[in-house]
Structure formats: structure tokens, C-alpha cells
Amino acid sequence: MEQTQVGSIATTDIVAAFGLHRAVQIVAPRQRIYIQGDPADSLFYLVNGMARLAVTSVDGKEASVMNINTGEFLGEDYLPAFPGVRAASAIAVLSCTVLRIQRLDMLRAIREEPKLAVIFMNSLLLRGVRAQAAVVDQFFNSSEKWLARILLIMARDGLRRSVSTLIPKITQEALAEMVGTTRSRVSFFLNRFRKLGFITYSGQIRVFHTLSAVLQSN
To answer: Could you tell me which residue ranges the Cyclic nucleotide-binding domain spans (predicted)?
Structure first.
């Protein structure tokens, strides 16, 4: 993984808590930020990009658990008093900039920086809510709804300011891995969303807020 220096993010609360010029890691799409079974000795903060958590069975089958977005922590399984190993792998979906935080550094910062502690707790609470939604999608909802939810999450910041927004470029193969389906099914759903006017798609996907109607359908 290539190393770079924190630049425009140096003024954020997270980076400021750990030093203004701390090196961060650039992780290319499909590369692993950490691997299932690795020692859980550090926490990661996703400065930008998108990643997914995936578990691999003993026979080599991989299943996506949930997605991690810009501004979220990952790898918090290092927090117990006696941390063990990673329960899942974190895999970059888009190019990711991640800040790696050693366990003792994070525990110290939580004690000394109340604002950081609040940000971290809010992140964990949001993760819990989204994890529940991911479980519902996997067991009770269709792949179509899960794809719609992923697109809406990727468009979240832009849709706060406008009725539509372009999401970062992402391949149908990457979306299929996140949903846990085939590329042909993703292509079918994207074409359906386009015909319904929920997205436009010509190399880069533009998501309209009306896509949320898919989540409400029976």
C-alpha cells in the first residue's frame, strides 16, 4: 500500500487528535485493509473512499457483511481489554485513504479528548443501526433492495443538498460483490432503476432521491 501525507484533512477532529502530519495509507480497490484472522491491534478511520467487511468460511466462500463509508471507523474489534483476531476482512471497494490508529493511542485519545469520544461513539451507534439493516436485507429483502440501499448510502451527502447526485465511479462487478449477487443481476437492476427514472447511468451513476421508493416496495 502506498503511503501519503495527510493534507486537506489535517484540520479534521480525527486527524488533529493523532497529529497533523501523520502518514495515512492509500488502499487500491479490491486490496485488503486488514485480513480476517490477523491480530486485532489497531483501529482504522476511513478518511475517504468506501470499503466492505467480508467473512470467509473454512471452505473459502466469501460473504459481504456490510459496507463502510467515508468518515467511519473500522476494525473496532481491537477494543476489548484482551483483543484477539479480526473477525472479518476489510476490503476497499473504491480507492480508500485510511488512517491507522494504534490501540493505546486510541484509548488515550478517548480519555483525553471528549469530542473525539463522542464522534467515535456516534460512529459505533450508526454502525449498529446499519448492521441491523444489512442483516434484514440479506435475510428478508431482495438483492434489488440491497443494491438500492448501497446506492443511496453512496449518494447520501449529495442528496442532502440536491434531488440527485453523481456517486463515485464504481464497476458493476464491485457492486455485485457488495450485494452478494452476480454482475448480470446488478446490470438488470440498474437498467430497471434507469427505466423508472431513479438513476441515470452512462459510465457514472447519478442517483435521484426517488430511488428510496424501492426500499418501501413490497
So the answer is: 1-110
